[in-house]
Specification:
The protein is mainly alpha-helical and 121 residues long. The chain has helices at residues 22-31, 37-69, 77-110; strands spanning 2-3, 10-11, 14-15, 18-19. α2 (37-69) packs antiparallel against α3.
Length: 121
């Protein structure tokens, strides 16, 4: 059994990997806003973060794969270019992930909806 993240009561219920008891779940459900555009924006931003996090992880794996393929000592010119390319891809993927995290945080903390998700007209 785990302790509820809110009230520390023992529970076997988990929500998104976080232990939470029935009482706290019911209280939270009562306080939730009705589903609508706010929920849609939150889902879009969470999905965007999940995708960019996965891309960053893949880019990091590729960088590590390339750097471990190069034998000890000085890599040949092609090896150097492969490392440079993998490093660039990893940096770009991490920047995209950080931007996604910032967009989600701005929305959750300040209610700022990214311009590309605002409805026109």
């Amino acid at each position: 059994m785990a302790e509820c993240a809110r009230c520390k009561a023992y529970t076997q219920l988990f929500e998104n990997g976080v232990p939470i008891c029935l009482k706290c779940t019911s209280e939270r459900e009562g306080k939730r806003k009705p589903a609508g555009s706010e929920n849609r924006i939150h889902v879009i931003l969470k999905d965007e973060l999940a995708v960019t996090t996965e891309l960053a992880a893949q880019a990091t794996e590729e960088f590590l794969r390339v750097t471990t393929e190069i034998p000890s000592g000085l890599p040949h010119a092609d090896g150097t270019q492969r490392i440079h390319n993998a490093s660039h891809d990893m940096s770009h993927a991490r920047e995209r992930m950080l931007l996604s995290q910032k967009r989600l945080n701005d929305y959750l903390i300040s209610g700022i909806v990214p311009e590309d998700l605002k409805r026109s007209g």
